[in-house]
Amino acid sequence: MSAGAPTVLHGWGRTSPSVATVRTPVTADEVAAAVRGAGDRGVLARGLGRSYGDPAQNAGGTVLDMTHRRGVRRLDVDAAVVEVEAGTSLDELLRVLLGVGLTLPVQPGTRQVSVGGAIAADVHGKNHHVAGSFGAHVRWVDLLTADGAVQRLRPDGPDPELFWGTVGGMGLTGVVLRAELSVRRVETSSVVVTSERHGDLGEVMDALTRLDHEAEYSVAWFDSVSRGRGSGRGVVLSGHDARLDELPVAQRRTPYAVPPPRSVAVPLVPPVSLVNRLSGRAFNELWFRRAPRHPGTGVEHAFGFFQPLDGVASWNRLYGPRGLAQYQLAVPHDAAAVVPEVVAAVAASGHVSCLNVLKRFGPGTPSPLSFPMPGWTLALDLPVAPGLAGLLDRLDAMVLEAGGRVYLAKDSRTPAHHLAAMYPDLPRFAALRRRVDPEGRFASDLARRLGLLTPTPAREARP
Amino acid sequence: MDATGRPQSLLLLGGTSEIGLAVADAWAERSPGLRVVLAARPGERRDAAAARLEGRGCRVEVHDFDALDDGAHVRVVEKARAGGDVDVAVVAYGVLGDPELAWQDPEEAGRVARTNYTAPVLSGVALGAMVRAQGHGVVVALSSVAGERPRRSNFVYGSSKAGMDAFYTGLGEALRPIGGRVLVVRPGFVRSRMTAGLDAAPLAVGPEEVARAVVDGVAAGREQVWVPRPLRPVMSTLRHLPRPVFRRLPL
Ligand SMILES: Cc1cc2nc3c(=O)[nH]c(=O)nc-3n(C[C@H](O)[C@H](O)[C@H](O)COP(=O)(O)OP(=O)(O)OC[C@H]3O[C@@H](n4cnc5c(N)ncnc54)[C@H](O)[C@@H]3O)c2cc1C
Ligand SMILES: NC(=O)c1ccc[n+]([C@@H]2O[C@H](COP(=O)([O-])OP(=O)(O)OC[C@H]3O[C@@H](n4cnc5c(N)ncnc54)[C@H](OP(=O)(O)O)[C@@H]3O)[C@@H](O)[C@H]2O)c1
């Protein structure tokens, strides 16, 4: 393990960087030593830094880069379970799994995520409406807690509170060292994808609702720039794992083929954001036009379907020195009307988001800080620019009014006093932390910013 | 500090400065529940400032602070940190002094030089230690265009600001690798208590304009700003004028 050097860390959005002492423990003993040796600013595990804001930073404290603790420990093909080190990337894991005809039951929009990060954020994928989130497929975790001890936790005990607090717990209950996951058998590494273009947001939402019962995977991209009649027009993608007989004949001999790791990258941060009103407008137009006017079905590699952005490394640099803010909200079904309101507010604001995703969530997990709730989720990628804070504050107000929440893994700016309303189980999480980490050893910039270490009561924002 | 450049806590060293308080107002409007720590000499002005910020929804803490007390800088920064991280600290105190006395009377000369240079250096040392401990933090230093080219009319003040400006420019470099940022602010003539009774110079601004430049500058990650902006080219020109020409200008 390295002695630790002061290192500037930021999230994928490249906003609010801070400096921490980064250590690279591999063994459980090394992790325990680093946790015990942490100073008064505490300690935090970090995976691949794909959260957008500040959850994987711990300014002035210690950060444990877990990516040196990687690899598949045990793979039981018949039982479809895999035991894996927490620092393993989903990319690495999927390449191993697909080699034997298995896949992950939940895949986020990038494979450059560690198993530990996927658990800590309880990530979701395009099949949330049928499969739930990542935490629902974790059979156990080995958690190293503040006292340096390692416990094997399962969803139904021992200590289910701590298991579910760790799922979605953003690294604040301890360090996940290893986990066992349930995986799924597939006949191929491809997905049969149907793409439909819809002229407005209402149609997009109707299509997604219908697909709840028809499709294993469903997601929509929508236009966040156009106003009036075409407002929220979009492309709805749905699909299922391709069966062998659905593959083109030429591919049937290598049904589990995977493309080699990518190589293209954005080499440096341009002095200003290349994502601006002009390019954003063009992107929104292009993305819509790219989809066939009439529904079309084809076979696509799972990597391209689940992680279309992974083809270009460091694309976040395109957003320039001020970086980007992700805004992902979830609202209950009965507040579906918030979705078009949000889209209209963004379109009217002049702020341009390119990667606008809409999806329906199924039931959540028992985790107090997990994001998904039955209803709608909508994500926006916004370059940080003057006036953005005001727009996002207005969106917060709509989300709160609807009884919804924002996703902590993507948050970089939510005012602390909104948190209790967004996450009603916050007191339960605070109590858990008092029990397992009474000295508050585990800390992060996100936790400090949102008052997760010392919860602040909900407060009316001043008019 | 959030992704949009909004602080959650603000420390004003010189907590009664009109410019400093305008900065607090500007952020209070953008960050509901902002924690503001006023480090200032006790008195009515400080009480009034605290009451007004509380009225605007801020959580206000007040600490006694005399910039001419060498030990006060570290002490007050530690007190501010005890209540949580400091996202932004503004070094706002300063004195104009009596320009003619200041180059002839040792006491006045010492007061101006110490308040505007030695004390800010000590504040900077304390804030540097704070940044190192926190792993983040923005320092805003209220310098002045008067430090860019000393004028006959107030060169003691100008020289003290020149030194302060150079110190904070260097501090910005020193803090970069440990997570800190410094914004050096160079206003021209600001209509405030400090300049009350003086004839406003061309391009004079109000404290709110300085505050806006600070808020925008911090959000944009700038390292120096002139207020108003056109002063930058103006000062650049003035700096390069030959002395016989500069001498004759009515400044
Ligand atoms: C392009 C892109 C697309 C994305 N798409 C999706 C999506 O579709 N669905 C979705 O849910 N999310 C998505 N995300 C978000 C991402 O999946 C999460 O932020 C995830 O947590 C990142 O994992 P990481 O390994 O990079 O963790 P980091 O960002 O390094 O850390 C995230 C959190 O996990 C904690 N953590 C990491 N490792 C451990 C450990 N070993 N033990 C304890 N805590 C740990 C950290 O403390 C931190 O709080 C996307 C992100 C990007 C950049
Ligand atoms: N006004 C301008 O034209 C102008 C232009 C450029 C730069 N600046 C700079 O901007 C800063 C703020 O000025 P301002 O315009 O806001 O004037 P101001 O309202 O007079 O503020 C100056 C502050 O300094 C404080 N101060 C002076 N000596 C102190 C000491 N020993 N200990 C603690 N506090 C002390 C004063 O506090 P008390 O209330 O206790 O007296 C006062 O609040 C100053 O550094 C100034 O040099 C001003």
Low-confidence stretches of chain A: 456-463
Largest beta-sheet characterization of chain A = 8 strands, antiparallel
Span from first to last CA of chain B? 40 Å
**Could you state the order of secondary-structure elements of chain B as H and E?**
EHEHEHEHHEHEHEHH
Number of helices of chain B: 9
* CATH architecture classification of chain B: 3-Layer(aba) Sandwich
Helix share, percent of chain A: 25-40%
CATH architecture of the domain at 190-418 in chain A: 3-Layer(aba) Sandwich
Radius of gyration of chain A: 21 Å
Output the structural class of chain A.
alpha+beta
CATH topology of the domain at 190-418 in chain A: Vanillyl-alcohol Oxidase, Chain A, domain 3
| CATH topology heading of chain B | Rossmann fold
Biggest interface, chains and residues, is:
A-B, 35 and 27 residues
Mean pLDDT of chain B: 96
Kindly summarize this structure in a few lines.
The complex is a heterodimer of chains A (463) and B (251). Chain A has helices spanning 28-36, 90-99, 115-120, 128-131, 160-166, 201-214, 277-290, 302-306, 338-349, 388-401, 419-422, 426-436, 445-450; strands at 5-9, 18-23, 43-46, 62-65, 72-76, 81-85, 102-103, 138-144, 150-153, 175-182, 184-185, 190-198, 217-222, 234-241, 296-301, 324-332, 357-361, 375-383, 405-406. With 463 residues, chain A is α+β, with helices and mostly antiparallel strands.
Defining key terms:
heterodimer, A: 463 residues, alpha+beta, Vanillyl-alcohol Oxidase, Chain A, domain 3, eight-stranded antiparallel sheet, five-stranded antiparallel sheet, 19 strands, disordered C terminus, B: 251 residues, alpha/beta, Rossmann fold, binds NADP nicotinamide-adenine-dinucleotide phosphate
How would you describe this structure to a colleague?
The complex is a heterodimer of chains A (463) and B (251). Chain A has a domain at 190-418: Vanillyl-alcohol Oxidase, Chain A, domain 3 (3-Layer(aba) Sandwich), CATH 3.40.462. Chain A has helices spanning 28-36, 90-99, 115-120, 128-131, 160-166, 201-214, 277-290, 302-306, 338-349, 388-401, 419-422, 426-436, 445-450, and strands at 5-9, 18-23, 43-46, 62-65, 72-76, 81-85, 102-103, 138-144, 150-153, 175-182, 184-185, 190-198, 217-222, 234-241, 296-301, 324-332, 357-361, 375-383, 405-406. Chain A is α+β, with helices and mostly antiparallel strands. Mean pLDDT of chain A is 93; it is low at 456-463. With 251 residues, chain B is of the alpha/beta class. Chain B has helices spanning 18-30, 44-55, 72-82, 99-102, 106-134, 155-175, 207-220, 231-240, 243-248; strands at 9-13, 35-40, 59-64, 88-91, 137-142, 180-187, 224-227. A seven-stranded parallel beta sheet of chain B has the order 3-2-1-4-5-6-7, with helices on both faces. In chain B, helix 1 (18-30) links the parallel strand 1 and strand 2. The longest helix of chain B is centred in the middle third of the chain and has 29 residues, at 106-134. Chain B is globular. The mean pLDDT of chain B is 96. The interface between A and B is medium-sized, with 35 and 27 residues. The complex binds flavin-adenine dinucleotide (FAD) and NADP nicotinamide-adenine-dinucleotide phosphate. NADP nicotinamide-adenine-dinucleotide phosphate binds at residues 14, 16-20, 40-41, 45, 65-68, 92-95, 115, 142, 144, 187, 189-190, 192-195 of chain B. NADP nicotinamide-adenine-dinucleotide phosphate (NAP) binds at residues 14, 16-20, 40-41, 45, 65-68, 92-95, 115, 142, 144, 187, 189-190, 192-195 of chain B.
